[in-house]
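Sequence dictates fold. Below is an illustrative record:

_____
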Amino acid sequence: MNSEQIIEYLTSIADSSRLKNMGKYGINTTNAIGVSVTELRNFSRIIGKNHDLALTLWKIDIHESRMLATLIDIPGKVTEKQMEEWVLDFNSWDLCDQCCNNLFGKTEFAQKKIKEWSRRQEEFVKRAAFSLIAVIAVHDKKALNESFEEYFSIIIRESTDHRQYVKKAVNWALRNIGKRNLVLNKKAIETAEEMLKKKNKNSLWIAKDAIRELSSKKIKERLQKKTQ
C-alpha cells in the first residue's frame, strides 16, 4: 500500500463532523479531516511497520497522515535528525503526545531529547520533553528510580512556564513519575512541595494538582499492592 492509497482511504472514512468536537478539546483541526485515533490504530495494523512510508506520510500536511506515521514507523530506524525535524512540525497537543507515546519514547534518543527539548522555547517542543517523561514513566517497566529522579530538577525549573500545553505536560510528567512506586511517589510529592515555595501561580497549580492525586488514598493503596 502506498501513500496515495492510504490518503485515499483516510479521506473515504473521514467524518468532518468530528472536527468541532476535536476543537473543543483544544486539538488544532486546521489540517485535520476527521479520522479517529481508534480508526488510525486499526488501519496501522493492516499497513504494518514501514519506516520509509512513515517518512512519506509525515511530509503530507494532514493531521491524520502524521498521526498514522507515528504508528507505523520503526523506533530503531528513527534518527536524531528525524526527531528534530518532526518535533518542529508539532502544532497540536495530541500530535505531540501521540508521537511521543507511539514512537519517540521508544527510541534510543528519548532521554537525550528530554534534557535538550526541556530547555527549548517552542511550546510543543518543550511539551514533547515532558510528554516523553510521562509516557516513559508508564511504559518503561525496567527503568530504575534514579533515571526519573534526575527529572525532578527539570520539572521544578520549567514549572513556571505559563503556557497551557507546557504546564499541563509538566504536571502530567510529575504525576506519572509519582505513580510508578512508593519511593518515587514520596519524592514526587516532595518535589511538588518544593515547587510551592516558588510562589509562582503556574508552579502552584502544578504542585497542588500533583499533591492532590499522588497523596490520594486510591494511589497509595495501588502502590502499596505493587510492593506486596
